[in-house]
Amino acid sequence: MNAKYKPIALHILNNYTDEVMIESGFKRRGNSLNYFRTIGSTKQKLDMACFSHPSCYAEALLHIYPYMAVYFPEINKTAENMISNVGTTTIYQPIKEKPFDAQQWILMTDAKEEIADVAEKIRLFLKQCTIPLFDDLKTIDDYIDKYEQHDERVVLSEKCYFYVASAYAIKGEYAKGLEVLNNRFVGPAIRKYHAKAFEYFETKLGT
Questions:
Q1: Which of 20, 24, 108, 122 lies at a 20 to 30 A Cα distance from 46?
Q2: For residues 121 and 100, is the Cβ–Cβ distance under 8 A?
Q3: Cβ-based neighbour number of residue 182 at 10 Å
Q4: Which residues are registered as beta bridge partners of 68?
Q5: 3-class DSSP state of 48
Q6: Where are the beta strands (DSSP E) in 53-192?
Q7: Domain boundary assignment for the chain
């Protein structure tokens, strides 16, 4: 983001989103565009990403779009038995949920009225959608539940299936963890590529 537009983003956070985030236990440092919250060992982060003059929106000044991160340290530690480059987040994704549309968060000008309109939409989105999603991801059991319920709010990239399998392993449900891998990685080539993960569960199950 071009530095000259950061004051617009900070104005939105200071005057519209800080209150709802702080009420839910999130903190923001100084001129940061990120909110943080720790619940037990779970770490949650909201990154209010801003893109100046975005290529996908002609003549737009600024595109504001939130990314969420949730880190379950025990899950990532367990995933080290299966994959390399585990990373420092368990979930990292843009937040998209109907009836809110990211296209509404485009600033074509720096007019106060336009900024206020977009800022209010963001505030409502955080209050009605984002915070409830964070509240639904406080524990490993919550994470498993989102997978089992096929909750579309949580995006499953390829790596995420190892995290889900790790969550089951932590609960001692090794058969379910292996089932996650069997359902996602079908065929001899891909199974061979991820042999370390399959061997981890097969060893735990004594098969």
A1: 108
A2: yes
A3: 13
A4: 46, 93
A5: strand
A6: 62-71, 91-94, 106-107
A7: 3-157
